[in-house]
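in:
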């Protein structure tokens, strides 16, 4: 209500009606990266929570020297297995009153469902990222990383890598070397960094984000561009840990073959509410994930150094 001069009678309650906007303020969502860092090779094989997919790994065949007249040594290959258990589930459930639905000029059910979908993706993305940081191969993490070199510092609890604009590129490239030593494919590599690290990269020797080789805006995927052979993604969902008095982040690098993910919306209902005049909208998403190739995953344990 606009203030009036002294002695002026306000008539706003009688003549000036409330006007409801036909637009909703858009929500701001965390970028989700799971779709870009995991394979979904086994997703078609699940139906319900509790389902288990047994994944067979290709065995390694021995190569032997041959001598004329020598006796051949037969190998009986054994394929080890990994279980992908669909043991996690998340749901949403909201009620939309019939009066609200009929009297508003906004498609509330569609708006609410869209938000539920985005929030579901963020919850699952966070669950995955804050679990897999501890699951790379032992030689792909720590202060003595590198299955061949054993002298690459990717940080460890109590001794994180302090990232600055001067060393952040070198550290990311070092993680690439760690993957190279594991014979990890060069295509489809990813690196997920927190927003402050993205800022450091833009202030580093690259000067601006366009020099990463990707002019596409980040949007909700968080995609920033490429450094070395990594596609960089920006995310607020990485695991953050208070190490003594310093916050540290687990920056994830790897290849899509490392992580498999499977999910299915097993329930999506619109029901008549029993306790009120309205509709219940609810959805159940069951999912599971597993690091099936730890050699193709690396963790940089980093603290935030000088930002300027």
């Amino acid at each position: 209500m606009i203030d009036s001069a002294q002695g002026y009678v306000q008539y706003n309650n009688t003549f000036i009606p409330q006007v409801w906007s036909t637009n909703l303020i858009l929500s701001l969502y965390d970028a989700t990266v799971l779709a870009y860092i995991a394979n979904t090779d086994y997703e078609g094989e699940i139906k319900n929570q509790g389902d288990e997919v047994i994944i067979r790994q290709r065995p390694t065949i021995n190569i032997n020297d041959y001598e004329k007249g020598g006796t051949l040594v037969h190998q009986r290959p054994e394929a080890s297995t990994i279980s992908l258990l669909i043991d996690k589930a998340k749901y949403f459930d909201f009620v939309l009153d019939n009066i609200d639905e009929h009297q508003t000029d906004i498609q509330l059910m569609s708006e609410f469902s869209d938000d539920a979908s985005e929030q579901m993706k963020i919850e699952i993305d966070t669950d995955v990222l804050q679990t897999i940081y501890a699951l790379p191969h032992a030689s792909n993490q720590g202060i003595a990383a590198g299955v061949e070199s054993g002298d690459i510092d990717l940080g460890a609890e109590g001794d994180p890598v302090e990232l600055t604009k001067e060393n952040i590129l070198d550290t990311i490239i070092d993680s690439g070397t760690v993957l190279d030593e594991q014979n990890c494919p060069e295509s489809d590599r990813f690196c997920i960094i927190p927003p402050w690290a993205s800022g450091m990269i833009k202030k580093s020797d690259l000067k601006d984000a366009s020099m990463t080789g990707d002019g596409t805006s980040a949007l909700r995927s968080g995609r920033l561009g490429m450094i070395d052979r990594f596609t960089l993604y920006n995310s607020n969902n990485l695991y953050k840990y208070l190490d003594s008095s310093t916050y540290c982040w687990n920056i994830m690098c790897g290849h899509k073959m490392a992580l498999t993910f499977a999910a299915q919306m097993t329930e999506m209902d619109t029901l008549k509410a029993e306790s009120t005049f309205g509709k219940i909208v609810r959805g159940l998403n069951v999912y599971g994930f597993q690091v099936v190739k730890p050699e193709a995953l690396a963790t940089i344990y980093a603290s935030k150094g000088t930002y300027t």
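note: The radius of gyration is 26 Å.
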